[in-house]
Amino acid sequence: MTGTSAQKVNKKALLREESIYRLTQAAFRIVVSKGYQACTLQEIAEAAGLTKGAVYFYFESKENLLLHLLDVAEKDIVDPLFDHLKNLSAPAAEKIAAFFKFTSRQGIDRPDELLCLIKMSIESRSSTEVADVKISAIYQRIYRMLEEIIERGKLAGELATTLPTKEFAMLVVATHDGMMLEWHRRGGNIDGRLFVRTVWQTFLNGIVPPPPVDPHLRPYVLFADRS
Fold first, then answer.
1. Which domain covers residue 42, as residue numbers?
2. Does the N-terminal or the C-terminal CB of the chain have fewer CB atoms within 10 Å?
3. Euclidean distance between CA atoms 154 and 160, whole angstroms
4. DSSP string over 192-206
5. Do 154 and 176 fall into the same domain?
């Protein structure tokens, strides 16, 4: 391959990469703001400064574009979260707190990607079967990770043994998603750090086992018996 031919190939590759990036970012913004069903490929193309034909050229269909968004969000949001918690040497309660803190930072750095995952988890059943399977698989990964943290914490005495594993993992995810949606709904007019800290501190206070009771101490009486 001559130098001129190589330059042409590189230029085409760069153009393709840039076009896909622009379409991806535009699609994230519009899906988050309007929802998957309500948005059109024409809107996404115009927001990216490209033609509708470019969307079909790179993705072939609206469904393929959505699957691409989910792949990107999983790589940028979920995979780093897994790596962070896997490498974190801390008790289970602190790992759950870290789950909230880490994703809140992702919400600042990559808000559209995080919100796309959350919103598509709500809308997926009205989108496509393939997208529904994909988003369900992503959330199942998160549930399994949390359930493993909870089970290990219970075995180590770090979490209350009465804590139902599956249900608590669901509660963590539901609280996280609701927290991020509320943050988004308020348009950033909220102290994000205080909001997140309030959430995870509330969880910590409710899930750690109570301290052992000294059998030699008399029970604490709130009100004196005056009878």
1. 10-60
2. C
3. 6
4. HHHHHHHHHHHHHHH
5. yes
- Alpha carbons 22 and 194: distance in angstroms, whole number: 34
Please say if the pLDDT value at position 210 is more than 70.
no
Whether the Cβ atoms of residue 150 and residue 92 lie closer than 8 Å to each other? yes
pLDDT number for residue 211: 61
Task: Report residue 13 as tokens.
Answer: 């590759």
Which tokens is 50 given? 């490209």
Q: Is residue 140 part of a domain?
A: yes
**DSSP per residue over 116-173, as a string?**
HHHHHHHHGGGS-HHHHHHHHHHHHHHHHHHHHHHHHHHHTTSS-TTS-HHHHHHHHH
Weakest-pLDDT range from 8-17, 50-59, 89-98, 210-219: 210-219
Q: Given the structure tokens 């409710």, which residue do they identify?
A: 206
CB 160 within 8 Å of CB 205: no
Q: Are 196 and 101 in contact (CB under 8 A)?
A: yes
**pTM > 0.85:** no
Size of the chain in residues: 227
* Cβ-proximal residues to 78 (8 Å cutoff; 6+ apart), any chain: 117, 138, 141, 142
Q: Are 147 and 156 in contact (CB under 8 A)?
A: no
97 lies in the same domain as 199: yes
- The pair phi, psi for residue 177, each rounded to 5°, is -65, -40
| Straight-line distance from the first to the last Cα atom of the chain, in angstroms, rounded to the nearest whole number | 101
Residue 202, burial from CB neighbour count under 10 angstroms (0-12, 13-18, 19+): exposed
Token couple for 64? 């393929």
